[in-house]
Amino acid sequence: TRIHLTQIDEDGNINWEYKSPTDKWRFAVTDIIQLKDGGLVMSTGWGYKWYTLTRWHPMLLKLNSDHNIEWETAFREESGNVHNRVNRIFQTEDEGFIAGGHLLDVNDNASQEDHWDFVAYLWKVSETGDSLWSRYYQIVENKTDFHQIQDIERCPVFVGEAQDEDPEEGEPSQQAWIFKVDKYACLIPGCQLLDDVEEPPHEKVQYQ
Q1: Theoretical Cys-Cys bridge with 72: which of 31, 61, 167, 197, CB 3.0 to 4.6 Å?
Q2: CA gap 158, 180 in Å, rounded
Q3: How far apart, in whole angstroms, are the C-alpha atoms of residue 136 and residue 121?
């Protein structure tokens, strides 16, 4: 699959088009923002084949004002999945970007039926495409829950839903949720100060 962007004028004439390279798997664009420098930042996905399935890692991609790729950064959680998504992005005051969506939460010690557990997440990327931090959110805890962030306000306030596909009798199977975090995406202020968290070594990856 490929990204295909088209800008048209008020008369329906095409001003420009962008198509991602044919040798790279990219998911459909789920959100896009235009920058002051004329560039575009969009949320998409980096895909690869796994047996008969296509697995996806959420990705942010920037095109410069000439519509050439300036940078692309994928969120490399443990397992790509066909359902992984970035749903919304917004630009922060320091010119970075925060993305929100949902991911398959893989528990390698669980049985296969315990794997279908989706968590909502926020992910921050710098203005140059460097991954800075990520946070995960969950309010329903069982093997079939599904959490997602569907929209972002600049506060930042986040809205989405939590689904429980196997609720207890009398409990709701789907709940709307709204929550506000600080600039580090902490529900409890100070979470960014934990001194036992280290960033793993990583190299710049060429995403195929």
Answers
A1: 61
A2: 6
A3: 4
Take residue 15 and report the two structure tokens written for it: 């001003």
Are 84 and 45 in contact by the 8 Å Cβ rule? The answer is: yes
Burial 125-164 (b: 16+ CB within 10 A, else e): bebebebeeebebeebeeeebbbbbbebeeebebbbebbb
Question: Alpha carbon of 45 to those of 25, 58, 187: distances in Å?
Answer: 8, 4, 27
Beta bridge partners, 5, equal 18
Q: Give the integer Cα–Cα distance in Å for 72 and 59.
A: 7
Residue 62 burial class via C-beta count within 10 angstroms: exposed 0-12, middle 13-18, buried 19 and up: buried
pLDDT of 23-59, one tens digit each?
A: 888 888 989 999 999 999 999 988 887 777 777 888 9
pLDDT at 129 over 90: yes
CB neighbours (10 Å) of residue 19? Answer: 11
